[in-house]
Amino acid sequence: MAHIQNVLVLAVLCVLAVALTQASQNGHHIHGKWSMAGQSRQDSEPTWVTCDFDVFPRMRCHDCNTKLICKKIGGLLLDCPSSFAPYCNNGFCSRTPSEECA
Q1: At residue 93, does pLDDT exceed 80?
Q2: Domain limits, the chain
Q3: I need a labelling partner for 23 at 20 to 30 A (CA). Which of 34, 65, 100, 101 fits?
Q4: Helix (H) / strand (E) containing 48
């Protein structure tokens, strides 16, 4: 009987894990995965732009509230989340604005 209960608990946990994974893939970040870097300002989709992959650092600020991550396939623009880290500072979302944006 204990073996059957263990199997049922495992099955429920698997279903729950799949449901949570699908929710986060659809843009509903339940517990803030990559919260400082990937969670967008208004849950907007990230924007792809051209960038030079050979320029360092590859993570840098695009403007005061948006960071740019250069990848081999292009640059990914991500808005900083307005609620807890609205400014881009040295390529990372931060509570503190950079000197240029202060």
Answers
A1: yes
A2: 1-31, 34-102
A3: 65
A4: strand 47-49
